[in-house]
Structures are given as C-alpha cells and as structure tokens.
Specification:
324 residues, alpha+beta, OB fold (Dihydrolipoamide Acetyltransferase, E2P), Hypothetical protein af1432, 2 domains, 10 helices, 5 strands, elongated, binds fe (ii) ion
C-alpha cells in the first residue's frame, strides 16, 4: 500500500503493509515478559506522530543506536490495532538518502508564518513604554542569544503546539487573548505592560526544558527543574542585571511566571496574585486547550467514526462533524 503521509493511515488499512520515510524522534528499549528486548519507537512526518513497535531490536542494536533524530529513515511496516488504537509494527528500516528527502515534509511546523509571528510579537512589544521592562524583553527575547531558539522551539512534547515555532505561536495566541481581556476590562497601561512581559516570558524556559526539534522530549535540565522554575530563575537573573528595575514590577512579573499553571496541583508553586497573572493563566489554558482539541480532531479526520476517541486532557471525545 502506498501512503502519502502518516495521517493517511486509518483503521481501513489494518493488517496492510506500507512503506514510508519518517523521522524517528524517540526510541525506548524495553524487555518483553520472556526477556526479549524490543523498541518502542515514535515515528513522525509533518502530518503526524505515531507510536510503533520494533520487535527485531536484538541483532540490530548497532543500527538503532546509530539513528540521529535528523536522519530520514525509510521503513517497511504493517498496520495493526491494540486496545482500540492503531499500532504500527516496523518490519524493516534503513537510512534514506537525505539529499532526496525534503525535511519540511517530515517536521510539523506552525502554519502561521515566522515573519508574521515576529511582526505580531513586535506589535505587542511596541505597546510597552517602561524602559526597564523593555530592556528585560530585549535581553531575553530580541537578543542573538535567544531569538532563534525562542522563535523555533516547540511549546510542548505532546498535546498542544508540539511543532516547529510552536512556542512562538502559543505565546502570540496568549498575548492576543490576554490583551483582549485586559483592554475590555480597562486595566491600566502599567498592568497591561506587565501582562505583556509575563506572557512573553511565561513559557520562555521551554527553550531549556525541551530538546530542539526534530528530537522530542525533555532535556536533563528540564526534567530536573522544569520550565516554571527555570523561567522565574532566569528572569530574576536578568532583572538583577538591569539597573533600577522596579521592585513591584519584579514581584508581579515573577508571580505571573510562577503561577501561570493556575493551581498548585498543576505544578505552580504559588497562585496568581494579580489580575494580570489570572488573565495570563486563563489565556494560557485557553490557547493550550483549543489547540489540543483542533489538532486531535485533525489527526482523526480520516477515520470514519463520527466522534473522536477520548482526548485525555479534556476528558471527553469530540464531534467531528462540528469541524466542518
Ligand atoms: Fe507553562
Ligand atoms: Fe503556556
């Protein structure tokens, strides 16, 4: 069977073989009950990420260990089903000639366009007037040290914005949602400025927490410390380099970063203590939730069922006809 993209694989194809060129973004070696080693592999192209089993790990360890996240891999595989989910079993794989492969076919990216996202970010930056807050954003975002990473990094490993420029797109969404609420509720210019700063920086540390695409997963620093602590820690370090940074602005911005998950049980060490911080939290949640629903439905648009499977972070399934 020939497929154009991984998203073309549906339940209709169960027990059929297919060939594809993919990136391998994660490999976990496991042992079955009888002690035989196998690999759980995440394969991806620009359309989808899927889990796959590779039972022939033993004897092919050397090849598996030689795979880099940016190597296009040609696979022969079969489509199966396990616990009501599609499961891919890889029968054979080899490195594809990377000169013949267009990498943009293999890595999902934001469809918003980097240039227009940069314009959007600058639109909000231009609304700022206070020199010490502008300097903080200049140092942490519009500097050679960070801009490339900030504008290309994903915002999540799975669930939402897990694509090239995902952090950029997510930040811009949160800025737009938050700004709308702040102006509707007539917050002061200073409050709006703080909201812009804390929003731009709330997930900044994802550039440290996640590996750069096409690798997926957490860095050691990310696993040990997480983006909430890392964000506040790095922001405070840079604030300390800025002369006469207003003490109240400092506390409010740091509280916004630390509390953006909104609840202690979701990983925030403190609760939102200002209106700006609460707006940030709710805008952040809206951006993540809506993106996760949209991409979940899109992932399953080729399946015949009227409803999707259950989206775990939202606790329900979705009516696909509603997308039309
Ligand atoms: Fe976050
Ligand atoms: Fe976020």
């Amino acid at each position: 069977m020939s497929i154009q993209q991984l998203k073309d694989i549906t339940k209709e194809y169960i027990s059929q073989n297919f060939e594809a060129i993919v990136l391998i973004s994660d490999i976990k070696v496991k042992a079955s009950r009888n002690g035989k080693k196998y690999a759980d592999i995440i394969i991806q192209d620009s359309s989808k990420m899927m889990e796959a089993k590779y039972w022939d790990y033993e004897g092919n360890e050397e090849f598996i260990n030689s795979i880099n996240p940016e190597d296009p891999i040609s696979i022969k595989a079969v489509v199966g089903e396990y616990k009501d989910q599609l499961q891919i079993t890889i029968r054979d794989m080899k490195k594809a000639n990377s000169e013949e492969v267009n990498m943009s076919d293999l890595i999902p990216a934001s469809t918003w366009g980097v240039d227009s996202m940069e314009k959007g970010l600058r639109y909000f930056y231009e609304k700022m007037k206070t020199p010490h807050m502008k300097e903080l954003i200049d140092k942490m975002i519009f500097s050679n040290d960070y801009f490339k990473k900030y504008s290309t990094h994903p915002a999540a490993r799975q669930v939402h914005h897990n694509f090239y420029h995902g952090l950029f797109q997510h930040t811009l969404e949160v800025l737009k949602f938050g700004y709308t609420v702040a102006t509707t509720k007539k917050l002061s210019d200073r409050q709006i400025e703080r909201l812009i700063v804390m929003t731009m920086l709330h997930d900044w540390a994802k550039i440290l927490e996640y590996k750069s695409l096409p690798s997926v997963g957490f860095t050691e620093e990310g696993t040990m410390l997480g983006h909430i602590f890392l964000g506040a820690h790095n922001t405070l370090n840079i604030i300390n380099e800025i002369e006469n940074f207003d003490e109240d602005d400092k506390l409010i911005i740091l509280n916004g970063i630390l509390s953006h998950h909104g609840h202690l049980e979701f990983g925030s060490p403190v609760l939102p203590k200002t209106i700006e911080a609460q707006i940030l939290h709710q805008s952040d949640k809206m951006s993540g939730d809506i993106e996760s629903i949209q991409s979940f439905i899109k992932d399953q648009e080729n399946e015949e069922d009227v409803f999707t499977t259950k989206l775990w972070n939202m606790g329900t399934d979705y009516y696909k006809k509603g997308m039309k």
